[in-house]
Amino acid sequence: MKPAPFKYIAASSLDHALSLKAEYGEEARFLAGGQSLMPAMNFRLAQPSVLIDVNPLEECAGIVIADNGEIRVGALTRYRDLERHADFLQACPLFADALPHIAHPQIRNRGTIGGNLSHADPASELPALAVGMQARLRLKSASGEREVAASEFFLGLLTTDLQVDEMLVEIVFPSQKPGTGTCFMEIARRRGDFALAGVAVTVTLDDNLRCTEVRLALCGVGETPVDASEAASLLIGQACTGEAIDAVAAAVGETIEPSGNVHASPDYQRHIAFVLTQRALAMAHQRVGHGA
Amino acid sequence: MEPDLHDIEFSVNGTTYRRSVESRILLSDFLRHELRLAGTHVGCEHGVCGACTILLDDAPIRSCLMLAVQANGHDLSTVEGLAQGDQLHPVQQAMHDHHGLQCGYCTPGILMTMTAYLKENASPSEQEVREALSGSLCRCTGYQNIVDAMMAAAEAMRGSTP
Asked: Taking the model in full, what pTM does it have?
């Protein structure tokens, strides 16, 4: 239970970190909060020969709410800083629901949003939030920069669109439309455990309380976060009655194909996703206009 | 492969140290084996059990999920820094009074977690205390005595620092 030997380099700037990654390629890993990479290294599931520590890069941390309402979050921003940023939580209320579910306070003091998304654990909350909130991810390398939609970023189990020389440097969340309510819920066996299933819902209503837009993403029920917005689109044009919500939950349950794990069978996961969809939709609907 | 050595400077409980460390040494092992501060316990070595929790710049973290070399330039606090001579910290005293430990393996991590927590939230509800304790596994006590100890410690600390 000790990491295999490696060469450690503390990056002195983002350019330095990116040029090191360009130089060492697959052999090298970025070390951010280390809350997933370090356990993997302790188990020797990961044995990078070079570790590029990006923790010194203060330029990559922080939250900016732009004039156009867009929320820009530096990849190195820690869960703890998200949790304590009142303006951010108001602008991105799904995070207020989801952050307390991420492991424990000691882990949240170190773990970063960029590290989480780059690790791409499908049971983790934030990839589902990024997909559900239509976040855009800014990726940078020594030779350039590009932006990719969260929906295109997660390719498979622990696999992303990040190229070997790229680093995720910023996450951009669009501002929430007026008349929108959100809710994230999950069920785990114990506090802080990975979710058996989790659901992130965003519902927008018009002045007649009919649904104009609905986004629904799940964690824990596939090899990537699952975007079930299409199944949920049954709700568009309708009032959020119990009947309409039940129909959406049934459609979502049919869309997903959970594989089951030691804690839950596929059927049980599907059942949880169904119930959470009902509850989260009802709560999101209730929160419309309450600023919560 | 030659050991990958780095010179670092950091403080533990107010004492400054300068050391040369190999990059692969975990902070938890470094504290115990190099600095001989064996009060920090090592349980699971993958961030689940909480026994190795220490403070990094006053915030509780898992010392098994950090490399010693990353401590460079930071201030660490460990359980050895809590008591003032024979005078136990109020959280330690409350754990003693309420039988909040049996084997004591998880205790250093709980003490570091809760001393930091009670500084932030001086009047926690029982539910908040349970939430704050959720990152520490204890297989002896069933947690109830620890919760009682923390409620008593919070009260004692409010009394001493109005």
From this structure: 0.96
